Amino acid sequence: MTQKELSNIREFVESKSTLLMKCGKKSFAKINFDISHYFELKYLGRKFVIISTNVFYHILNSVLAEACKKYPEKFGNDDVNEVLQAIYLVENVGTLDRFFEFLKNEQFAWILEIVEENVSPHVLRLELFRDMRLLKKGEAKNEFLGGVFHSFKHFTYKGVPLSTKKENKEIDHPKSIIEFAIQGFFFMKLQKEGVHIYKSKKILPSGRQLCFFFYKDNAAEIFFVNSIVYKK
Asked: Staple partner for 108: which of 96, 127, 128, 219, CB 3.0–4.6 Å?
């Protein structure tokens, strides 16, 4: 990464983060990042940079895979709390009661495309999750809302569900979700489904589909990953 690219990236991230706060979407925003977590990815001749918080990086690169291995019984049960408990048992930060809020608030990655040393304005933000919701009123079952863990409902790793559902699309590694997001956002045609909602899809060699859903903050001009769904 050149010094010019790095300078442009820092300026871009700071401006977008500040804009999110001004638009009232965030009460605070993560602006500074550990330089060791700037990663370049070349995909089909194009250059991308992934910038993540330390927590986002470690959960996708090691913690979630270890949690699936050690506590497989806590995944796929329609229970956000059990998934969080498994992660907490591997990487306990603070108290379990506050762990949900800790992971929900500003734990994410920017996915940026670099074109001639400049940052493309077409920008994607991938959060761990935005919130939790009940599946049915009055029941204890629940699920993650938005981001990585909502997407992971549709995937398994070494045969173990990666989130609250038991679905059977095997993924090479939890961090592979970043490459999926790049495919769906930067390489597929986005179709507008509503004021803020966009969708794209990729046809797999098997004939099945990966469907991508994004939320656009129109004021900040930022897209967020809502979900990535594997359809049979």
From this structure: 127
Q: Tokens in use for 75?
A: 């995944």
For residue 177, the 8-state DSSP code is: H
pLDDT at 160: 96
Q: Which two tokens stand for residue 88?
A: 């907490």
Residue with tokens 């990729």: 202
Q: Are 105 and 94 in contact (CB under 8 A)?
A: no
Q: What is the pLDDT of residues 38-97, one digit of tens each?
A: 889 998 899 999 999 889 999 999 999 999 999 999 999 999 999 999 999 998 877 888
**What is the model's pTM?**
0.89
SS3 182: helix
User: d(Cα 227, Cα 170) in Å, to the nearest integer?
Assistant: 16
